[in-house]
Amino acid sequence: MNNNYSLAIHGGAGTILPEHLTPEKEKSYHEALAEALFEGEKILKGEGSSLDAVERAVQVLEDCPLFNAGKGSVYGNNGIHETEASIMYGKGLQAGAAAGLQHIKNPISLAKKVLLAEDFVYLIGEGAETFAKQEGMEFVDQEYFHTEERYLQWQAAMGSDKVVLDHDGERKFGTVGAVALDLNGNLAAATSTGGLTNKRFGRLGDSSVVGSGTYANNDTCAISCTGYGEYFLRAVVAYDISAMMEYGGLSLTEACDKVVKDKLVKMQGEGGVIAVDAKGNIDLCFNSAGMYRGAVSSNLEAFTAIYDKK
């Protein structure tokens, strides 16, 4: 058994500047991130699994309307909220993912059910919801996902073919995620999102794609991504970081910097990652103006941050 645990979370990255947030709104973000950290750490402290810890931390963020996942998910071009999520356990490379969901209160929990089922890794749409019903999961009406802010963003984008990056006139990617190392030395990662405002044609991002938005391997690291999904898909960001550690001998920070601050920048891909390695080292790496984030470990007091400087 390890003597240490680590947990990191994110609530999206992008052009997040002090002038974009009122003090009240900023306080609300910090409180939500702190609650997610508290709930996840409670599991890790109690010798629970990293898999359960990342699921719980992401559930808290999904239940908060401030983030583009679960409750606060954005509207698609057709006026429908569709969510996606994935989760991975570093022990045995177990993974589960679900996408095209319209009625699942906590998409991350469905992804975990898929992981535990072991017969498949990735379910979408109606079939995924049929499986969820069979598993006794909580369903909600589309109205549950509505928030006035998301509705106004969608109204502003209607009539055009453009997708909107989550905030009015701001580039912000509202994905949520968590990564953790537990006392048994097992790593886990989880990511959940509502996608892009005004998305069309059943568009999916990287959040539910194992290896692109989420990855965990006990030999290397656990990664959860947030950013413009198309770039993270093309760069296979989460796995690329792990591969650089496994085959290139890079440290966690070196690998994150190489992928996020070099490779992605050259592709004009904006966003960031949260990462923890097999020793419990944490890295919160992004190439945007800010990232809603937080971390705690057996050696680190819990903190939350939004802008480039903590």
Automatic annotation (TrEMBL):
The record marks 174-175 as: Cleavage. Substrate binds at residues 203-206, 226-229. GO terms for molecular function: hydrolase activity, acting on carbon-nitrogen (but not peptide) bonds, in linear amides; peptidase activity. It comes from Sediminitomix flava. The keyword Flavoprotein does not apply. This is Isoaspartyl peptidase. The active site is at residue 175. Gene3D superfamilies: (Glycosyl)asparaginase. InterPro entries: Ntn_hydrolases_N (IPR029055), Peptidase_T2 (IPR000246). Pfam families: Asparaginase_2 (PF01112). The lineage of its organism: Bacteria, Pseudomonadati, Bacteroidota, Cytophagia, Cytophagales. Transmembrane segments: none annotated. One of its GO terms (biological process) is proteolysis. Keywords: Autocatalytic cleavage, Hydrolase, Protease.
